[in-house]
Amino acid sequence: MTRVTINAIETIILDVPTIRPHVLSVATMQSQTIVIVRLLCSDGIVGFGEGTTIGGLSYGAESPESIKLTIDRYVAPVLIGSDARPASAMAMLRRHIVANHFAKNAIETALLDAQGKRLGVPVSELLGGRLHDRLPVLWTLASGDTDRDIAEAEDMLARDRHHAFKLKIGKRPFEQDVAHVATIKRALGDRASVRVDVNQAWSEATAKRALPMLADAGVDLVEQPIPATQNLGMARLTQMGCVAVMADEALHGPESGYSLACGHAADVFAIKIAQAGGLSAAKKLAGIAEAAGIALYGGTMLEGGIGTIASAHVFSTLGALEYGTELFGPLLLTEELLAEPLRYEAGSLVLPTASGLGIEPRAEAIAALRRDRPLRTTVVMPLQAVG
Ligand SMILES: O=C(O)C[C@H]1C=CC(=O)O1
Ligand SMILES: [Mn+2]
After folding, report:
1. How would you classify the pairing of strands 46-52 and 134-136?
2. Tens digits of per-residue pLDDT, 22-65?
3. What is the reported pLDDT for 375?
4. SS3 for 54?
5. Domain boundaries of the chain, sorted by first residue
6. What does pLDDT average to over the chain?
7. Distance from CA of residue 27 to its chain's centroid?
8. Coil, strand, or helix at residue 337?
9. Cα atoms found within 13 Å of the Cα of residue 157, Cβ hemisphere only
10. DSSP result, 217-276
11. What separation in angstroms does the CA of 126 have from each of 3, 20, 113, 114?
């Protein structure tokens, strides 16, 4: 086999409106910003990747702008001219660049897409092989309004689009949040699983009071109730045993997963390819969870189609995803970014079978949404000329 090298790496920032405000404890999103990566190889194959976070710098340490800058200024010079095989390129990257997990994930996604296309196999087969052809996908209710959330959940159930819901809380006093959650769970009853994500907003003292109340309300899972740095507190909340506790922001790849597992600091891990630092790091993190008897959940950074399907390829190779996934990112956006939209059916995302990621970006959408597109200038006519 002739040696294939990396010829060029291009990054494009897109700003895409959301279908409604998405209210988290740390930010209210009116749009999502997505960094698209195009990786061109010496054999003419192009791989696509995505670097996406939530709310600028309010969620994680990398912003869309820093992901682009890291790739343009530091990743590209390291990788251009080097071997395009994903493992060797990623090893090279890790030698030269510390942290920057979101940027590394975007690059590994593009490398695996290109390699899959080259070998004629889906990315899931490069990761050991697919165990699932479809993945259950929940929907996040985060309009900020209880009645609107119930109406949205009813609509999703009626359309058979989702059978489980995650509620974003932590912005209001906890008693108000618990009442909001209890009202929604009462309205939905046994027709849907209801989980909550606090996004680190509570102190341990608040969480100790709130968890039994959420359990009484019928909540199945509480995600990252306290700050990501407080693993001992997470362990104490997990030991309470009244409701399953999930780690999200505390997970930054296999090493952080190992220390959480050793400290019995979660019942469930949210596996996110971006936070983990790439698809193979996410798989290693899942392996640590499996070895420790910690349940798995397929998380999202509310990515567009590329990041969502990259995550799906990883999750499809995991044995049991006891709590399903939240791979609904593209459904939160007003614009379709893929030539062929992802297939969502009966509460699940269907994995594509084509080689690589199995998707292609929609060129017109990229042209229309890229932040650096030429601005249209408005010509103001003098009044007398208008007549
Ligand atoms: O899990 C998070 O914290 C981030 C994200 C995932 C779903 C959603 O609505 O927000
Ligand atoms: Mn979360």
Report:
1. unpaired
2. 999 999 999 999 999 999 999 999 999 999 999 999 999 999 99
3. 81
4. coil
5. 6-120, 126-357
6. 97
7. 16
8. coil
9. 18
10. HT--EEE--S-TT-HHHHHHHHHH-SSEEEESTT--SHHHHHHHHHTT--SEEEE-HHHH
11. 18, 37, 10, 11
Rounded to the nearest angstrom, the distance between the alpha carbon of 18 and the centre of ligand 1 is 14
Dist. CA 223 → ligand 2 center (Å): 6
| 169 Cβ below 6 A of ligand 1 | no
Say if ligand 1 is within 6 A of residue 326 CB.
yes
Helix H segments across 26-120? 64-69, 76-79, 86-96, 101-119
Q: Does domain 126-357 have CATH number 2.60.40.1470?
A: no
* Cα→Cα distances 8→11, 38, 67, 223, 255, Å: 10, 8, 17, 39, 31
Task: For residue 123, count CB atoms less than 10 angstroms from its CB and return exposed for 0-12, middle for 13-18, buried for 19 or more.
Answer: buried
pLDDT band for position 386 (cuts 50, 70, 90): very low
Q: Is the reported ipTM for this assembly greater than 0.90?
A: yes
Q: Ligand 1: which of 28, 54, 249 to mutate, judged by most atoms within 8 Å of the beta carbon?
A: 54
Work out which ligand 1 atom sits closest to the CA atom of 59: 3
Candidates 247, 239, 183; CA nearest to 211 is 239
The CATH number of the domain covering residues in 6-120:
3.30.390.10
Cβ(274) to ligand 1 under 6 A? no
* CB of 248 sitting under 6 A from ligand 1: yes
Find the mean pLDDT for residues 192-208.
98
Query: What distance in Å separates the CA atoms of residue 387 and residue 384, rounded to the nearest whole number?
Result: 5
Q: What is the CA radius of gyration of the chain?
A: 21
Question: Which of ligand 1's atoms lies nearest the C-alpha of 199?
Answer: 3
Tell me the pLDDT tens digit for each residue of 95-148. Answer: 999 999 999 999 999 999 999 999 999 999 999 999 999 999 999 999 999 999
